[in-house]
């Protein structure tokens, strides 16, 4: 299990824009499972929508992107090879099936479809309990550290 402090060290994003709370499972280069706890104190709660907060879909996609970046970053550390970090390139066939609200815990499951040189393609499923709330594919490019 990888805790929040270790996640913050591995991601390029900084608090308060770190949207992954804990990594539960990691199969280097292949698969990762992480969680994000949705609270009523996050900035979106007041505005999206007043008196009826719904976690924005774009933030669900960002949770998946950060979980994917963690998979890539932690796999590189395991191989003692630092070639850069993942940046979102595209969102393909991503669907939202259910609403996410404060109090929910997202379980983000990311599986690698293909990694070629400086590109990666992943498939993700996001669940709250046994209910799938979103799923789809994302593509990434590798940005070099400068």
TrEMBL record:
Q: Can the keyword NAD be found in this entry's annotation?
A: no
Q: List the keywords (alphabetical).
A: Lyase
Check the record and name the Pfam families matching this protein: FabA
What EC number(s) does the entry state? 4.2.1.59
Which SUPFAM superfamilies does the record associate with it?
Thioesterase/thiol ester dehydrase-isomerase
Q: Name one GO molecular function term.
A: (3R)-hydroxyacyl-[acyl-carrier-protein] dehydratase activity
InterPro entries listed in its UniProt record? FabA_FabZ, HotDog_dom_sf
User: What Gene3D superfamilies does the database record attribute to this sequence?
Assistant: Hotdog Thioesterase
| Record-linked PANTHER family | 3-HYDROXYACYL-[ACYL-CARRIER-PROTEIN] DEHYDRATASE
**What family is it from?**
Belongs to the thioester dehydratase family. FabZ subfamily.
Q: Name the NCBIfam families for this protein.
A: PRK00006.1
Name of the protein in question: 3-hydroxyacyl-ACP dehydratase FabZ
Species source reads Lutispora saccharofermentans
Instruction: List the gene name.
Output: fabZ
């Amino acid at each position: 299990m990888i805790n929040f402090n270790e996640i913050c060290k591995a991601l390029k994003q900084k608090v308060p824009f770190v949207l992954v709370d804990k990594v539960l499972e990691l199969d280097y280069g292949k698969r990762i499972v992480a969680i994000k706890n949705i609270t009523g104190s996050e900035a979106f709660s007041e505005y999206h929508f007043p008196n009826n907060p719904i976690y924005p879909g774009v933030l669900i996609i960002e949770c998946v992107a950060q979980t994917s970046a963690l998979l890539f970053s932690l796999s590189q550390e395991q191989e003692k090879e630092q070639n850069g970090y993942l940046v979102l390139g595209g969102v393909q066939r991503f669907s939202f099936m259910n609403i996410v609200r404060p109090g929910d815990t997202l379980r983000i499951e990311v599986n690698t479809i293909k990694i070629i040189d400086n590109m990666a393609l992943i498939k993700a499923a996001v669940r709250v309990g046994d209910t799938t709330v979103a799923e789809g594919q994302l593509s990434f490019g590798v940005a070099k550290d400068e």
